[in-house]
Amino acid sequence: MYIHRPYKLRRGQFENLLQNMRNYTIQLKENPYLDENDLTDEDFNVFCPVSKEQFLDMFTYCDPVGRDRREISKKDLLAFLCKTRQGISDEFLKVIFKYPTRQCASNKIALVRKSLQARFVPENIGLQALTRDEYMQRHVTDFANHLLNPQPEIPRVIVLNDCTYLYIEKSSCFKVLRQSYSVHKGRHLIKPSMLVAPDGYILDIQGPYFSNTANNDAQILINEFQRDVETMRAWFHDGDIFVVDRGYRDAIPMLERLGIQSKMPEIMQPGRCILYMTAFFYILT
């Protein structure tokens, strides 16, 4: 039963109530997205390429950065992930996340990037993120092992190596302008080299390299084994398998000297129309 009774507030209680309401309104105005709970799951997926659980796990890696140990908020991480997913400008991030200036938004993005590079990236991406045995157990599929490994009963590391590209804006530096121009694509770009497992897991991202003729795919692979001798040669052993395309043909002698097997599509012989089985198996891998 409802009983209508007046509720009395003392002067101090009323002042505290108004002050709390004022502070909350100011907080919402300055920080419209306080954390992941302010967005629904559908809206959150629009902002970020990860789920809310993954977002919280990633936030645990956001340690303070710099000599002054600047803290990173969930809003900063959300803005960083939004930029990586949507590719929007810092001016647009300033409007969405209510940063004071565009420079402030840029600084926050750079701060999150430095923080993630310190601990999150080394622990999740790269040859140091997992051992050879973990890689073979988790990411080398049975199909790839029986198709590419001459001795399927002996597990081997199987890696697909290829270069991709990322378009960039024209540089004001003439040297960088020339080095980043790709004659093949007709645009300015950089080339990261990808080491990918048969199940799609990204083992390592090397580079990025300029896209001029001095950095072809084979030379990039040779340079990685020469530059990072301790890591690359210690992680890859005799009998491991590299799946590459014809752009790596100049790197095959180097792989053979290291005892690494290479799987590459053959060149079509004169008088033949197509490499039926080789092309079929290569597409499957």
TrEMBL record:
Domain DDE Tnp4: 162-249
Swiss-Prot/TrEMBL cofactor(s): a divalent metal cation
Domain of life: Eukaryota
Taxonomic lineage of the native organism: Eukaryota, Metazoa, Ecdysozoa, Arthropoda, Hexapoda
Pfam families on file: DDE_Tnp_4
Alphabetized GO MF terms: metal ion binding
Protein's UniProt name: DDE Tnp4 domain-containing protein
Protein keywords: Metal-binding
